Amino acid sequence: MKKLLLLTILLNFSSTSAKGIIATITLLKGSGSVLFPGAQHVVPIKKGMKLLEDTSILTNDKTFVKISFLAGGKTSIGANTKIVLVKGGKKKATFVSLLKGQIRANIPKKSGRVHDNLKHKLIIKTRHASLGVRGTEFLTVHNPENHITSMITFKGEVAFVKVKKNLLSTKVEKRILGLMQVDDFDAILDGKDSEVVREGRYSGVIPTKEIATIPTKISPKQYEILKSNVNLDFDNKSEVVSNGEKDKKGTYKTYVDDPPAEGFYDDETGAYAPRSGGYLDIETSIYVQPDPGSKLDKKNNVYILSDQFGGVDEKTGDYIPPEGLSLTASKGFVIKDMTNAEQLRIASKVFGIDVDGILTPKIKRNLKKSLSQMLFVKKAILNNEIRDELLDLEDSDVDGLENIAREFRRALDSIKEVLEVNTSLALGTSSNVTDQAFGQTFKVSNVSSSFLEFDFEIKHNNYLLSNWVSTPYFGFELTKYFSSHENVKSSSLWVFNIGIENKISHGFGDLNIDLEVKKASKLEKNNMFYESFYNVESVKHQSESSFFYQFIEVSVKEKIKIDKWRSVSFGADFKNYDTFSETLNGKQFNYWAELQGRFLPRYELVGKYLVSDRSSKQSIGKTSKTGFSAQFNIYEIYTRFTFRSEFSNFSLKHKDSVVASSKGVEKESTLKFGLDSELGINFSIGLNQEFIKVKSLLNEANYKESKTMVSLNYTY
């Protein structure tokens, strides 16, 4: 405390020699004010004005000022910017304190002057960062509200470092800054925490990180436009927004120390690189990262932010948020206050509906409600991408949004009519031929076989622009068994199904009501090795080669968020079967709990415990099932692949069953793993492997199956 008091006294009584001229205002558009050292009042800024050490400059709206330094080089100041020209001269480095706003500097590497030998010709200091310039062109932005300093280099290199927070007052810190020498700043800028920001790279000093972010490539589209916006004109927008997907400009030079395009965080060192290809918002100084579902521009090794999440102004290069949202310095993305007419205008663009036509009040309400829901999802996704930059961003923005890119895609689909086609082809082997009914597999032969499965399904997501989502569908399944046993002929099974899924979302959770009718075949008869469970049917049903059955399923799910990466879910299902015959009619109850966790954050672990009870009216009897399943998934592998795996182990106990009572307790284990990949916007393909093993008290009831499946999904 004594040392601090002594330092303050020394500063107050230090000599105040005459301030020298260090710069001249060479260009002025707009207005502003200047406070000269020792003056009590500001004066209007004027072209040709000579600027002394410790001169403060404040610009107004729609203002641009260009300053030429006596030592060489030029600096442009944008609108609503405040700087202090701390010191400088012909033979000295120029020190500038940026209190808020934007500075664009162009410092030549060689000017033929004595100070060409200086390590840093221009040093810019904000409250939290320092920039050292030798010969380069760059843009730096500082927002005092969120304490973020960002910079982009257009030419050459800039040394960039975060200044550790100290306990000195702003006034004392300013005086100390004036006393610091070039060597002092050179030592800071050349320290181990300093970053060298090269052409086309962004780096930021943000409150949540101890050091400046690793320089990362920004959007090529924004980079080229910002580079040409030498007058820092961010007011006269062109109202043309582009995300650069169709017009990729610029080619970046690659350096060996460039971080990976997907970014990284080193928990041990604190080194952090955001995802490449993002946009810098000039007013807030926030770097908006591309969403996890963004495409990779392989030419420049950067991601392209989806146009659903904003773009850049074609004239100024500034970031433009999605319609209906605004980006604030402290709260991140927020939903704008809009009139009914503005909401309907945006809804017409998003949903493709002509609002100039006659719309009933109910349709208008649904449109505005759906727009509000979609804007909330966008806001949550975008805020999740800038969480690393803002200290006080509320957790509520991302609650309930797991698997973020897919969550937005679902929300976007929920306001459109979507046709979805799913098809799969599987080849496998089994230890005995199988037949399925009433939700459980019956073993009807003790002869091993190979089989070929083909599934086809069409869904029409005829969404109702509300919390109630209705999806009709139809499809068919065909299974062909091939056996080499001389007394067992090849057999086939087929199933046609039609149904409708209904999902109702409310604050308490999700309610699903599904209705389905199937027409299924039986295994071919007159085969001495088959023991069909249909033998317990009536004579009429034994003579039929196929049968109908229908079921109704009702399920309820509630999800509780533990934190950003972990959640717990609970659910209950009820199914009612009706096969139009007394024997197979039945019902089933499932109760389950699930724990889901994300880490790193593309990796996911899911654990689930399930209890199930099934019963039929007559001879099939009752079956109870208990056990667990565990999933391990990896998302965004090389931006387009997803790895999924699951292991389950269940215990099945048969009770009061004419067909299954002698089997006692069965153990059923399943192992699945697969790889999914997106093929463009509409297609996705999957390759999956599955192993099933059932262990029974009866050896002839033991069952094994191995299946390899290729699936294709098309969404229109």
UniProtKB/TrEMBL annotation:
Keyword Iron-sulfur carried by entry: no
Signal peptide: 1-18
InterPro entries: FecR
Domain of life: Bacteria
Transmembrane spans: none
The entry's keywords: Signal
Protein name: FecR protein domain-containing protein
